[in-house]
Amino acid sequence: MECIPSQSWLQKITSEDKVLLINPPIQEVRYAWIRWNQPTDLLILSSKLKNEAGCKVELLDFMLPTESGRVPMRDLAKAKEVRTKNIKTTYKARTYGLPLEEATQQLTSILPNWTPTHIVITTMTTYWFETLRPVISYMKTICPSAQVSIMGAYPVYETDHAMRMNADYLITDYFDTAEYCPDFEVYSGEITKFLHNGRTLLFGGLRLSDNSANAIEQIKSLRRQNIRDFVFFESNIFREDCKPLLEMLTALEKEKLSINLHGLCGLEIRNATEGIYTKMLQAGYRSFFLEYDLDNTELNKDSYRRAYLELVKHNSGRISSGNLAGFIMIGTAEDELERLFRHTLNLLEMCGSIIPKPFTPTINSEKYIEVKQKHGLDKLTPHVFPLAVDNGITREEYMEFYQHTSFLNEKRLGQSFDFFDNHYCSVALKRSLGKKGMMI
Amino acid sequence: MTISRNKLAILINPPIYDTQYWARWSMPHGLLKIATWLRYEGYDLKLYDCLNPYGEGSGIPERVADFESYDAVRKQKKSVVVLASTEEREEQMSYKLKPNEKWKYIFGLPPHELEDQLTNYKNSIARKKYKSVEFWITSIMTYWWESTRDVIELALRVFPEAKIRLGGIYPTLAPWHAEKKLGIDPLLMKGDKLDLNDEAQMDRHLVIYNEVPAASNLDLATDLYDDKERPPYTILTTSRGCPHICSYCASNVLNDGTKVRTRTFEDVIAEIKDKFRKNTRVFCFYEDNLLMKMQEFKRILKAVLADKSLQGIKIYAPEGIEIGVALSDRKRYLLKMRSDKSILATLSIETVEEQDTSSAIDIYEAFKESKRRTKRTFIKFEEDLTHGAVVIKEQTDDHIVLVVGDDDKVVLRKAIKENGRTDLIYENEEQSSLGLYLVGVPEIVYLMRLAGFEKIYLPLETIKKETNARWNRSWNSNLSRFESLLAALEEVGFDTRKQNINAFVMFGLPGEDLEEIYDTALYASERVGSVIPMLFTPVPSTDVYEQYRPYIEEHRFDLHHLNGKLFPFFPMLRDQMKMKYPEYEIEIADYVRVESFMQRINSKINGQSVNIYADTKVASTFRQTYSEYESFIKEWV
């Protein structure tokens, strides 16, 4: 086993090599929006490998959704247990992704024609490592001559931990991929397609690159494959005063491409400039999921007002129910139930939908290290609320909070329930709820 | 038995026109019994169950293994109905509804497809040259009568010489309507007068009301379904009738009175075993009042439990059980472990009368003698569910001493309560090292759980006493009894937050207040976790219907306008509410919202339903925050 920087690893790859990229299955307590997962880092690495090493690249994406957007899921016998201050909570754990046996069966049948020399497994986070060991064992059994490498957040930040996974190489930093775009074509290759039983992409996950022309070319290419839905996977799509986004939207408008854009992540609304939402709507944005924006501990009224005016009040087209939502971060050290509910109601009133987003500490922060030492690396998944109990809210209470938000969010015939108007049915509900004891 | 020859009966369960439809348990069991009877009478049979969710044409895209997944059939938009009115019109599919409108759909096989299938069938049987063709059509809800009319029309278009026999709930409750509105000139007749050999009858179209006694206790002819399309469940009817006369319920009309009749035990068990052997695992009791013949029902359950060949059976009773009757059953005492709620053993108190040794005397004397006769009550150890960890150490008629897990001694003693009933008490509970406790539950709920009942349905209707009194349901109005039964259900293992227990909540009635509906729905949600809204429909032939007849006539409502989902009483409700709350404009959209609120309140996460009325910190914080909430966007609007 060797820990190796990305550049040195890359030098080992030659044009003779055959590289199999793997997006592994995941063990988790929950996995929301699974249809929108895509291994962008692997797709970009594919571009880089093809361009710089000239090697052959194929992909085994365990998480590739079916046409209906589903990914296989199995309950695990082993549950996740977290204990804080002597309160034990047990979570049902599941494995998401194509079953290993099924995937290896497909892989085994192509080995006579195509045997990988390198296998690269990516990791999205530091705490999704539990499936790596079985995946690597399987790969080493069926492709004994291949060198297995792990890339991504796990070997970069948890190198020591990753040494236990029996890989040949741990890539200890990120590849320089600034110049590259995701290689969506890889899904159309004969071997990759066979590995996925003929399934292919449902949407294009893009980056807001400096050169919007590249992204436009990619969109055009995916449109030819009948892919209509696109997402920009960025931590902040409004960065640099929205310049990259505006360039992209202008280019899209010029091309008159008929596409659906989905604002699923990175809508950091405090950086949104005047008129940007209107532009997004014009360019084909169908959904807007607004990141949680606080001014100290309260919602940042300015940023939410801008979003509300452009997306609701002045938008005659109306966004369909459920496609305008506000994230609310839960599970932080500062959580207070009253404030969480108030913000939930605020966002519900404004957007019609809310999405609780469980919090986990930033990698290598003080809290991250504390949780890792106290509970173990796998308990850093936000879905077990690593900071619960210590912040005065138990894990069971977070579950109950989830149930409440689910009730508030529920759509019937495509409509949310209006809890906020002054109709008698809202007033009567308030009265009826008021008959039961309030905060205890 | 006279065997008629060369007769064909085409049996049809028509599609329906409605705004919503839940297809679970839609099997036309009355029609399938009639089919068995007609087969005995020498008819050839053909079935069209237009509402079968398991049918090829049901619209279910893929075969799913889970029985519970089948609760829908295909639907297509038919028209737009304006709520609380007689207005209905066709619209483009893309039409956007106004707040006071709903889409009316055709659920199930659409009439034009049924007509095509009948035409093909007619061609396929041309060689058989049937002497007569009869359409036996069932019609369930009175407000679904329109599709019955359409099916009759198309049936006669394809087979002009055929005769119609219409039966079911609709013609029984509204024969006067069925006689005039179906486009035929039928002979109206009671089921017990039906004679298949009476040519004068058979030459006419027939509208048959009430039951056909000859078919009442027959098996369901489920073999008429193709193998691939046969529903994996069956409907069991072991009794008919209900002794109560609730002002909104038509049970006594449907059953020709309030007498409760039961099928024989042997007959029911034979049916269960036969169906189970033929691979049916799910059994659904459809009864007017399931528990009214408690002993017979318990005997059936005990037989199911004792029969190892019936292992894996799932039983449902979606019509609900009567709370007071369930509670009146004798107690089964459960010895339980507090830590995991597991049941270790069960006991009961048995009563036996001493032998009758008196010589022949008249009835009155015999009665007096029976009163004099002494009764012996004793503790009966029913079951050890631990396979040996519970041992009887000592037993008399008055007490029993058990040893659990070698060293936990349990002393249970008979005690006479103030009401004279005998109870069993756990004398040394506080000394239990294992944390054991004893709880008495109505034996019936224990047996139901053991026998494989998946869900329990309780008729809560409303928690408001006055409303119950108005419906002649005062016997149901004691909430403490509802609570007692819930506690017993929880003790035997039904989980209130996993939608194992469901409460019917009624609304849309004249005189009600939206707040009262919320009160009931929130109470039900808190206590049982699953609320089933029942929108009030005045049923023809009931007191309530008669009471509101002037209103119904004034608004020119036909039966299909009285469908509760269309809120027929909204104008009356609005006027009543306006008097009470002049400051508010009451709109029909408010009622549509309350209806959707009831569905929302059943939201589940990880198999657990929400409880916004709970006493927990989260629920009470939510209530407080919501009740004090001030608009976030009011300055921007």
Automatic annotation (TrEMBL), chain A:
Record organism: Gordoniibacillus kamchatkensis
Protein name: Uncharacterized protein
Lineage: Bacteria, Bacillati, Bacillota, Bacilli, Bacillales
TrEMBL record, chain B:
All residue ranges annotated as the Radical SAM core domain in the record: 228-583
Tagged with keyword S-adenosyl-L-methionine: yes
UniProtKB keywords: Iron, Iron-sulfur, Metal-binding, S-adenosyl-L-methionine
Keyword tRNA processing set for record: no
Gene3D superfamilies in UniProt: Aldolase class I (3.20.20.70), tm_1862 like domain (3.80.30.20)
Cofactor: [4Fe-4S] cluster
InterPro entries, alphabetized: Aldolase_TIM, BchE-like, Elp3/MiaA/NifB-like_rSAM, rSAM, rSAM_horseshoe, rSAM_sf
Name this polypeptide is given: Radical SAM core domain-containing protein
Species of the source: Gordoniibacillus kamchatkensis
Lineage of the species this protein comes from: Bacteria, Bacillati, Bacillota, Bacilli, Bacillales
